[in-house]
Amino acid sequence: MIPFLDLKAQYESIKDEIMPAVSETLASTQWILGDQVTAFENEFAQYCSAGIGVGVNSGTSALHLALLAAGIGPGDKVITVANTFVATVAAIDYTGAQAVYVDVDEHTLNIDPGLIESAITTQTKAIVPVHLHGQPADMDPIMEIARRYGLVVIEDAAQAHGAEYRGRRVGTLADMGCFSFYPGKNLGACGEGGIVLTDNPLYAEKIRMLRDWGQERKYHHVHKGFNYRMEGLQAAILRVKLRHLDAWTTARRDIASYYDELLAGSDITCPWEQSNTRHVYHVYAIRVRDRDRVRQHLDKSHIQTGIHYPIPVHLQAAYATSRCVSGDLPVTERAAGELLSLPIFAELGKHEAMQVNNVLRSALKETA
Ligand SMILES: *Cc1c(COP(=O)(O)O)cnc(C)c1O
């Protein structure tokens, strides 16, 4: 069996470093916020070359609080994509603002900067680009448009820890950058976690208050806040794992280029890496006709795959509106029917990638 992701293999490789960090944090009794969280916030901000990091309890909370810190609320519109995990849109919805979808670029599957301007109205307050699958969105034109219209830009970098755009790490390319540390992400906790990065001390201060009941100091609630605090144990574990992130990213990129090599000349479209970027391959998503049959074939050969994502957010039952219906986002909708994510994680061997290639090729023959 070749799993889509093998968290056990990763854990086994670093268990001896995690255990002392866990027992130290348990003994310290700083289980919520505290020294480990502060240290991780600083180390992750430094890793990305950001000024400030504020740790929270999930990537969704990071997005929610970043939007609130930017003053987004009812009556506002926020431009984003439907080709994303539902959390991007849920966070916008939590604020009372309305998500406005823009279609994605055919090659990168990230927001198409050429379509943003025509989606802007007087109610538009922000843009939330998503660095989908670990590939940076094309931030220069996005920032240029945002500055011209006075819009806030918040990066959804939940899938892109360590990814780079023109030599700069994602999460630092806009007003705020939001990350998730869900276990399956490129940098994952042993539970939930998230962080907001920013260079703006006013945003950071607001988010620090909002994550902890809007308190200025204990029992002085100056904002309506939330219980969105990061746990000490998760921070301690993330500090250990951050030291391995670059090696894991290199391994992911090696597997990705090996897949590229193996699949060259087939009917499969491999992920397209934009020049001047460093894609971190959270997901290695191919595009293939007759996707569901190909997937079944892989499944029968015990190769696990994923689909990111089968139903774009604008067509999800909970988020469907008459403002954006089937047919309105043709590139997004076509991709949803063709994308297939192959196994990728740092511990995956070349031999296994070769096996995936062999099964894929016989599946293509059968479905041709
Ligand atoms: C995972 C993810 C999130 C949400 O992060 P959680 O930590 O699961 O709340 C948001 N956006 C994208 C694109 C994601 O992949």
Automatic annotation (TrEMBL):
GO biological process terms on file: polysaccharide biosynthetic process
Active site: residue positions: 185
Task: Give one Pfam family.
Answer: DegT_DnrJ_EryC1
Q: CDD domains, per this entry?
A: AHBA_syn
Recorded hits in Gene3D superfamilies, A to Z, give: Aspartate Aminotransferase, domain 1, Type I PLP-dependent aspartate aminotransferase-like (Major domain)
Supply one GO molecular-function term: pyridoxal phosphate binding
Going by the UniProt record, its keywords in alphabetical order are: Aminotransferase, Pyridoxal phosphate, Transferase
Modified positions (N6-(pyridoxal phosphate)lysine) are 185
User: Any coiled-coil ranges, and where?
Assistant: none
Spell out the family assignment given in the record's similarity comment: Belongs to the DegT/DnrJ/EryC1 family.
PANTHER family, alphabetically? 3-OXO-GLUCOSE-6-PHOSPHATE:GLUTAMATE AMINOTRANSFERASE (PTHR30244:SF36), TRANSAMINASE (PTHR30244)
Can you name this protein? DegT/DnrJ/EryC1/StrS family aminotransferase
Protein source organism: Parahaliea mediterranea
